[in-house]
Design a protein that fits this description.
By secondary structure, the chain is α/β, with parallel strands linked by helices. Helix content is about 40%, strand content about 15%. The protein has helices spanning about 10-25, 60, 70-80, 95-105, 115-130, 150, 160, 180-185, 210-220, 270-275, 290-305, 310-325, 350-355, 380-395; strands at about 35-40, 45, 50-55, 110-115, 135-140, 170-175, 190-195, 225-230, 250-255, 265-270, 330-335, 340-345, 360, 365, 370. The radius of gyration is 21 Å and the shape is globular. The relative contact order is 0.15.
């Protein structure tokens, strides 16, 4: 049996060698933290040198039920012994059961499965074009919907878009501004795509009536409303989905990140009146909704239900925001559930580096905003530790 390669080196040398090999062998599109992670459990991870970290990044809001949850591991192991991949040329039970589960949870009618958030957005944009016969997209300032060519056109940051123009670029309007949105949407608009809470843009929370206004604007012009729930789904905001804070039912939803317990998966869900325009061959994904990842998704959703993690997200998120407001000299603390943004006068990338040295993993979405998206299983003691570390860093001269 062929085993995973091992390096016969000291622990420190092993980390350095992996960093060196990565630079030689992997295309350099990522800025990585200088640690080699080898193990995870709950809201903690460990590096190759045995150091423990509280993980408030969670694979960028992916590890909703925590690292290596036993129920998810068991489901993956059991399925891997039976059937791993078939393609979508054949029927498999797990995919159908998952589609039924997602229909119930979201209020949508049909699902298309893929491998990531960007892929789910691509599918949504194609569906909008096919359903409306139009090509124009309206998106929000500070939006993030992916980096593939289609989704990139709806992503706001010019630094992401500029090198790859020409693109099918969206009209960008200020977020949480219904009047600006109404002025931009026309009979040429195929879809408006919005995040219920902006993630990469800095954890920006709109007023509850914003998405309701967007729904009305789309209805008036015959455009589709796409809600990008890639980051806000599966309990992250203290509701199953971010749309529930506004009571809005979109035409299309995009899902990924927290859907499958850490395995790569995406899904686009839509109303039946919209999905009927997609015919066989209009879109496809070789790996989408495969037996293994669907088993993981069903297990992860089961954990969220049985451990009541949606309510826990609301409770722990309120506790985290309260502790941050009480203990940290922040310009603003904002968010819903365990999707929290902390705006600071300090240089946040440097704060991230210092926190890592003290055993806390954080993420900066910009120079002055930290994003905290821990696993929903995080506890008060772990939150207290992170707030204490952040306070110590900010108090240093």
């Amino acid at each position: 049996m062929t085993e995973t390669p091992k390096l016969d080196l000291s622990v420190a040398e092993r980390t350095a060698r992996i960093v060196e090999l990565e630079r030689e062998s992997v295309i350099q599109t990522y800025t990585r933290q200088p640690i080699l992670l080898v193990k995870g459990a709950g809201a903690k991870v460990w590096d190759a040198e045995g150091r423990e970290y509280l993980d408030f990044v969670a694979g960028v809001a992916v590890n909703t039920v925590g690292h290596c949850h036993p129920s998810v591991v068991e489901a993956i192991t059991r399925q891997a012994k039976e059937l791993i991949h078939t393609s979508n040329l054949y029927y498999t039970e797990n995919q159908v059961f998952l589609a039924e589960e997602l229909k119930t949870l979201t209020g949508m009618d049909r699902a298309f499965f893929c491998n990531s958030g960007a892929e789910s957005v691509e599918a949504a944009l194609k569906l909008a074009r096919r359903a409306t016969g139009r090509s124009e997209i309206v998106a929000a300032v500070h939006s993030f919907h992916g980096r593939t060519l289609g989704s990139l056109g709806a992503t706001y940051k010019a630094v992401y878009r500029e090198p790859f123009r020409p693109l099918a670029e969206a009209k960008f309007v200020p977020y949480d501004d219904p009047e600006a949105l109404a002025a931009a949407v026309s009979k040429e608009t195929s879809a408006v795509i919005l995040e219920p809470v902006q993630g990469e843009g800095g954890v920006n929370v709109p007023k509850p009536d914003y998405l309701r206004a967007a729904r009305e604007i789309c209805d008036d012009c015959g455009a589709l409303l796409i809600l990008d729930e890639v980051q806000t789904g599966f309990g992250r905001t203290g509701k199953w989905f971010g749309k529930e804070h506004s009571g809005v039912l979109p035409d299309v939803m995009t899902l990924a990140k927290g859907i499958a317990g850490g395995l790569p998966m995406g899904a686009m869900l839509a109303a039946e009146s919209v999905t009927d325009v997609f015919q066989r061959g209009d879109h496809a994904s070789t790996f989408g909704g495969g037996p293994l990842v669907s088993a993981a998704a069903l297990a992860s959703i089961g954990v969220i239900k049985t451990e009541r993690l949606v309510g826990r997200s609301a409770e722990m998120g309120a506790y985290l925001r309260s502790r941050l407001n009480d203990e940290i000299d922040a310009l603003e603390v904002r968010g819903l559930g365990l999707m929290v943004g902390v705006e600071l006068a300090a240089n946040c990338p440097e704060v991230v580096n210092q926190a890592r040295e003290r055993g806390v993993l954080l993420n900066a979405t910009s120079e002055h905003v930290l994003r905290m998206v821990p696993p929903l299983v995080v506890g008060k003691e772990e939150i207290d530790r992170v707030v204490t570390v952040l306070g110590e860093i900010l108090e240093e001269p």
